[in-house]
Specification:
With 282 residues, this protein is of the alpha/beta class. The chain has two domains: 66 residues; 202 residues, Rossmann fold (3-Layer(aba) Sandwich). The chain contains 13 helices and nine strands. Helix 8 links the parallel strand 4 and strand 5. Helix 1 crosses helix 2 and helix 12 runs parallel beside helix 13. The radius of gyration is 21 Å and the shape is elongated. The N and C termini lie far apart (64 Å).
Length: 282
């Protein structure tokens, strides 16, 4: 089987499987490139050449995983976020471009003095690592309850940050542990905010990701409510609480922030104009 015929074969199977994919041919090339190490130039130079049996075996293995709905990022083992490549795999939430708005908001501060930050659900470490690479004097406390995520968090912190970076990993329940380390200047999170009923309607790819990082309760706001209350408790006066929210949760988060004691509450929108971040100031 030639490279061209395998791409055509894979394209057809991708279309039949209805996995999330904007361009089946391009995605098939991505799968092949990851499976057998083909560059863009290789696709031109080897387009009409036969693949070896070993290459076909490897390519088929990657393709079958993808057709079963496994996220491409899990298959290749990484995802880009902000300016860095983060190790990911089964058991850890895949970083998403939308979450970069949290990083942008954190970095807007003109004050470069030391700040102490607590994060619920550090996941792969994408938010904290991205910020510390540009604010090396800050101190970051990443809380993660999922043991599978802790593995990736440790890898990314160790690989991407310099030894002197003040990133502290706390394995366990944020709500039980964060008070012992208070007060903080900032509490930030991309928490679980999807309702139980909504989760079943999401793509197969998303359903491969850890439910603990996605489902925020029956209504989707239970974790957000608990998080806002606890954040208010552990923040210094003038401290900021920043959380990612669902696009339909603008009014809910404003109410939650107000009921939790925050005098200043607002919702920041993403580049598509959708509600993306809830922000409260103590």
């Amino acid at each position: 089987m030639t490279l061209e015929s395998f791409v055509t074969f894979g394209k057809t199977r991708i279309e039949e499987s209805r996995i999330e994919c904007a361009d089946p041919i391009l995605h098939m090339k991505q799968i092949l490139g990851a499976a057998i190490g083909l560059s863009s130039l290789d696709f031109y130079s080897r387009w009409s050449e036969p693949l070896t049996d070993k290459e076909i075996q490897l390519a088929n293995a990657f393709l079958e995983r993808r057709l079963n709905g496994e996220p491409f990022q899990y298959i290749v083992g990484y995802e880009w976020f902000w300016h860095s490549q983060f190790d990911v795999g089964p058991g850890v939430l895949i970083p998403r471009k939308e979450t970069e708005h949290l990083v942008e908001e954190l970095l807007k501060s003109k004050c470069r003095d030391k700040k102490r930050v607590a994060e619920l659900g550090a996941g792969s470490g994408n938010i904290g690592v991205s910020v510390l690479l540009e604010r090396p004097q800050w101190e970051w406390h990443g809380f993660e309850i999922n043991p599978q995520s802790i593995t990736f968090l440790g890898k990314n912190v160790g690989r991407l940050l310099p030894l002197e970076a003040k990133y502290f990993i706390h394995e366990g329940n944020f709500f039980q542990k964060v008070g012992d380390l208070a007060p903080f200047d900032i509490v930030v999170s991309n928490p679980p905010y999807i309702s139980v009923s909504s989760f079943s309607q999401l793509s197969r790819e998303v359903q491969h990701e850890p439910k603990i990082a996605l489902i925020g309760g029956e209504e989707g706001t239970e974790v957000l409510k608990h998080l806002a209350v606890k954040s208010f408790e552990v923040l210094k006066p003038g401290g900021e609480f920043l959380t990612e929210i669902g696009s339909d949760q603008e009014e809910k988060i404003l109410s939650i922030l107000s009921q939790s004691g925050f005098q200043s509450a607002e919702v920041l929108r993403d580049y598509a104009g959708l509600p993306r971040i809830g922000k409260g100031v103590k």
